[in-house]
Amino acid sequence: MTGNGYIAVEEAVAVPGLAERRPPITLPGTIDPAFVEHVMARLPDVADLRLPDMDANGVAMQVLSLTVPGIEADPDAQRAVDNARYVNDSLAEIVHAHPDRFAAFAALPLQDPGAAVTELRRAVEHLGFKGALVNDHVQGRYLDDPAFDRLWATLAELDVPLYLHPGMPPADSWHVLDGHPELDGALWSWQATTGGHAMRVIMAGVFDRHPDARMILGHAGEFLPFQLSRFDSRYATLAVPNPLQRPPSEYFGTNVVVTTSGVSCPPPRSRRSST
Questions:
Q1: What is the mean pLDDT of residues 96-121?
Q2: 15, 19, 84, 123: which has the fewest C-beta neighbours closer than 10 Å?
Q3: pLDDT value at position 224?
Q4: Does residue 275 have a pLDDT over 50?
């Protein structure tokens, strides 16, 4: 929060024209149609709805990013490269029109890791973006994959963070969701899968190799901050081929930082027992 209000860092926007440039995307069938209509009216908007909403709720600035499923859901690497550039140029136009109210995270074509590094540099060095946002996995690959090592090195060099956001469609089919579709998505599974992805990045030693790289987790840390002491105590009992340089909890607050985005309850809740 600044003296003039909040800075919101997980602020989705839909880019007009993108839907016609890629295969159609199917939304989860469990979402209330009225909510879908409400969100779809607001995602592409900036001036008519978004700015008044920001003013009404004390938000000084939003850091915009492409809404899910993002560039990552496209199986065609060249199309992903072209569309990432299209999206980032579109976001840059919004920021240029309202520089005191909006900043942006870049969309990256991680289907081609080399092209993603090139686009990250362009977005940060030439468009003035504040980092990048990735919607979980990239065609089933996670960011601990050695193919993304240059990406982490470039993030560290440019001194910008990577925001790890939930994505869709999921990389895996979980039996624990069978018969309970309401658990699939923002209610539970997105936090669980994104938190698992973040732990893969930590356990793979990404932040040992790139100690200046930073990753942001939303939704109060995707369940992870509540488990820090357990991560350390259980990790100490394991025999792993390439041990971390620090206990797992020590990567939080340095390489992994957390926002409360999506946790829309400012005061803590208390539950009183009826007995």
A1: 98
A2: 19
A3: 97
A4: no
Which residues in 192-216 are b (16+ Cβ under 10 Å) and which e?
A: ebbbebbbebbbbebbeebeebbbb
Please calculate the CA angle 12-135-178 and round it to the nearest 5 degrees: 110
**For residues 202 and 206, what is the distance between their CA atoms, to the nearest angstrom?**
6
Q: Which amino acid is at 195?
A: G
Nearest-angstrom CA–CA distance, 161 and 170? 24
- In 10 A of CB 123, how many CB atoms? 28
Lowest-pLDDT choice from 200-209, 210-219, 222-231, 259-268: 259-268
Six-digit token pair at 54? 């920001």
Residue type, 137: H
Quickly list DSSP for the chain.
-BTTBEEEEEEEEPPTTSGGGS---PPPTTS-HHHHHHHHHHTT-STTTHHHHHHHTTEEEEEEEEPTTTGGG-S-HHHHHHHHHHHHHHHHHHHHHSTTTEEEPBP--TTSHHHHHHHHHIIIIIT----EEEES-BTTB-TTSGGGHHHHHHHHHHT--EEEE--SS-SS--GGGTT-GGGTTTTTHHHHHHHHHHHHHHHTTHHHH-TT--EEE-HHHHTGGGGHHHHHHHHTT---SS--SS-GGGGBTTTEEE--TT----SPP------
Strands 215-217 and 256-258: parallel
Give the pTM: 0.92
Rounded to 5 degrees, what are φ and ψ at 257?
Answer: -120, 160
The pair of structure tokens assigned to 86 is 């299209």
What pairs with residue 106 in β-bridges?
A: 132
Q: Report, in angstroms and rounded to the nearest whole number, the Rg of the chain calculated over CA atoms.
A: 19
Contact 22, 74 (CB under 8 A): yes
